[in-house]
Amino acid sequence: MSADELGKALWDASYAGDEAEVMRLIDAGAPVNWTTSSWGGSTPLMLAVWNENADTVRLLLERGADVDTTDNGGKAALDMGDDEACREVLFDAERIQRWHRRRLLVAWKQ
């Protein structure tokens, strides 16, 4: 699959809240911040928030999703919904991603 096909598949899996598929696609090289012109340039993270999939939100953040990316209207993931569980995960993004960056550095040093 091309990067664009992987990105679209990740977008769909994130929308559906299919965590196993999200993980498989990211492991296969799907671009975690992939956007599309449909849905106004939303990322997989934004769709997971919009659909109130807090576990998928956490997984995407653990795998490097950018919480500050904005869609075509200037909205970020935090603006996509008001589900309390998703908001808590998003507010904890810095700590979650600190571990993601640490894992990348360890892998790079090896």
Automatic annotation (TrEMBL):
This is Uncharacterized protein. Pfam families: Ank_5 (PF13857). The keyword Nuclease does not apply. Keywords: ANK repeat, Repeat. ANK repeats lie at residues 40-72. SUPFAM superfamilies: Ankyrin repeat (SSF48403). InterPro entries: Ankyrin_rpt, Ankyrin_rpt-contain_sf.
